[in-house]
């Protein structure tokens, strides 16, 4: 299960920075979203990250969301969260997000390239040796 913020929490943090807006994603503070229902959200995030005409603040929010998802997968793989959905979450990350980010490395637009590079860098730091 993946934690998502309650609507009231998102509205309350609308004036704060992107990192502070993602704080409610911490464990035990918000409702749960089953891992199987995360795939459409991940597809949408990678689509938005790959679009050239999207505002930079929206792209930064999407980058933070994907990095937070990678953090959640790392917690799940380590077994420190108490849920048993780590194989599903790891498959979602490695079979949908990482290939999309790798395709964006070939983008002609520098913003798309840099955004995907930042998320991939975060994933490599989390899961690398």
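^ structure tokens above, recovered residues below v
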């Amino acid at each position: 299960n993946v934690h998502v913020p309650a609507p009231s929490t998102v509205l309350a943090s609308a004036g704060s920075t992107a990192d502070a807006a993602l704080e409610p994603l911490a464990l035990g503070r918000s409702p749960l979203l089953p891992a199987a229902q995360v795939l459409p959200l991940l597809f949408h995030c990678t689509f938005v990250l790959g679009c050239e005409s999207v505002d930079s603040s929206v792209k930064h929010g999407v980058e933070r969301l994907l990095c937070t998802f990678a953090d959640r997968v790392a917690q799940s793989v380590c077994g420190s969260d108490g849920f048993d959905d780590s194989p599903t979450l790891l498959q979602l990350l490695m079979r949908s997000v990482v290939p999309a980010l790798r395709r964006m490395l070939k983008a002609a637009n520098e913003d798309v390239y840099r955004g995907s590079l930042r998320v991939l860098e975060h994933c490599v730091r989390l899961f690398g040796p």
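Confidence is low (pLDDT under 50) at residues 4-30.
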